[in-house]
Design a protein that fits this description.
The complex is a heterodimer. Chain A is α/β, with parallel strands linked by helices. Helix content of chain A is 37%, strand content 17%. Chain B has one helix at 45-48; strands spanning 5-9, 14-18, 30-35, 38-44, 52-61, 69-80, 83-90, 96-102. Classes of the chains: A alpha/beta, B mainly beta.
Chain lengths: 350, 104
């Protein structure tokens, strides 16, 4: 078996998934070669990059048996079936939000590893296998706060794209944060936030330059330091009915209205960095994976404020967070790393 | 049972760097790693289902002075289904890393 693992042209979280799987396959001793498509698209046209992947995969001397694409949304359907003698798979990252275009491609591939378990239940297709997101143990780890540069330290951290549902929750805690003189740090992609939002006061200069409006992506290695430096890391899930690419902002890539049940990579990464995770209670799987003595759950702004109060200002708050973080760390090391996922993929394709 | 250094072993009738040889690994129910008096890692038999417990130090030999070994990291873990699961705490910084390797 020899795998050609191809990253997505989009960067950000998808790149982290690509490296997570690449590191895991390598550590498992699998003959794997990575193709960082996201680097090549900076210098060549997209179809040229896909031709390079195609050529590399089909050179007989390379002896590839499998080609796996991370994400898969940018791969044309007919391209997926142009690898004679090689099994082709997609490891999706955006289900159920953008499942429809990938559903249309299913007949062109041999395996579809979805990050969303409701896709498996709804489709009943033997090509589809559930492969949740995870954290990369070769990148994530726990560093004591006194070893970190002050720029990584804060009381409350939100790191991610600020979609409208996330914006509402963040705006909802800002008066409480100010009233208690706490340090809230917001990093990620603020381009969807209206100019008048109070969120802008908390967006860090590390990823947004107010003079030029430039947004700088935070590399994964840096996010590890921020998760380590925060007392509490917030995790809001994506609203799968929302899309920035349409005028009415309604997502039209999930016409069957598949419900999101599974978690995002952040849910695994924060605990694997030894961080304390406060997570929105909207995904069924979150409650099944984590116990209440491992992470804190909230349902709305009011319960978020209540939880923040308990875990930042309450009695023995530091000890409580430390105990819960340690348990969550253990949980993720045994069940939530890319090593666990890669082993499952190998079991399926062997 | 706690780790002891420069330990006189009655069983082996010699001084060892640690008392590890005197620990009956089959009786371990929970394996914990402390750093500066605080638990950094706690492994329970029920959660990990270990076939075998495992612990080690990584160190470097100090070449000047009394050539003693300076500990770089303390590691605990377990072996299961041909894989070694390692929890490593760096002695100086307290950084905690998890690793998984093939057991040779």
């Amino acid at each position: 078996m020899k795998i050609l693992l191809v990253s997505d042209i989009a960067q950000f979280a998808l790149t982290d998934v690509y490296y997570g799987y690449l590191h895991a396959f390598q550590k498992l001793g699998v003959d794997v070669v990575g193709f960082p498509l996201h680097h090549f698209v900076n210098h060549h046209k997209e179809n040229m990059c896909l031709s390079m992947v195609h050529s590399q995969a089909l050179i007989k001397a390379n002896q590839y048996t499998h080609v796996f694409f991370i994400g898969g949304l940018s791969i044309p359907p007919e391209y997926l079936e142009s690898f004679p003698g090689i099994k082709v798979g997609v490891i999706s990252t955006e289900d159920p939000h953008s499942f429809d275009p990938l559903r249309d491609r299913l007949s062109f591939m041999d395996y579809y590893f979805t990050n969303e378990r409701s896709v498996v239940y709804s489709e009943n297709n033997p090509k589809i296998h559930y492969c949740p997101t995870a954290a990369d143990h070769t990148v994530c780890g726990s560093v004591p706060k006194n070893r970190l540069d002050p720029k990584y330290i804060c009381d409350i951290l939100f790191l991610g794209a600020i979609y409208p549902n996330r914006r509402k929750l963040l705006e909802g805690i800002i008066p409480w944060v100010k009233g208690n003189n706490l340090h809230l740090k917001i990093l990620g992609h603020p381009q969807y936030v209206p100019k008048e939002s109070p969120i802008w006061d908390f967006v860090s200069p590390e990823n947004y330059d107010p003079r030029t409006g430039a947004i700088m992506t935070i590399p994964h290695e840096e996010t590890v330091k921020y998760y380590n430096g925060a007392k509490v890391s917030l995790n809001f899930f994506r609203d799968v009915t929302w899309s920035p690419s349409r005028e009415d902002q309604k997502n039209d890539l999930n016409k069957n209205n598949l419900v999101a049940e599974s978690m995002n990579p952040r849910a695994y990464e924060v605990p694997l960095c030894g961080g304390f995770l406060m997570m929105e209670d909207t995904r069924k799987e979150a409650r099944e994976f984590f116990k209440e003595d491992q992470v804190s759950f909230f349902t709305n702004v009011s319960s978020l404020r209540k939880q923040l109060n308990k875990y930042l200002l309450g009695k023995n708050a530091d000890q409580l967070r430390e105990d819960m973080s340690r348990k969550a760390f253990m949980r993720v090391t045994t069940h939530g790393t890319y090593m666990v996922r890669a082993k499952e993929i190998l079991r399926i394709i062997s | 049972m706690q780790e002891k250094n420069n330990f006189w072993s009655e069983r082996h009738q010699k001084v060892s760097a640690t008392n590890w040889l005197d620990i009956d690994k089959d009786r371990i129910k929970t394996l914990q790693l402390f750093w500066k008096g605080k638990v950094r890692v706690s492994l329970c038999k029920e959660d990990c289902s270990p076939e075998k417990w495992w612990f080690s130090h990584t160190g470097s030999l100090q070449t000047s002075g009394d050539s003693r070994v300076v500990i770089v990291s303390r590691n605990i873990g377990y072996i299961r289904e041909g894989r070694r699961y390692i929890y490593r705490v760096m002695e100086e910084s307290g950084a905690l890393m998890f690793d998984e390797q093939e057991e040779n």
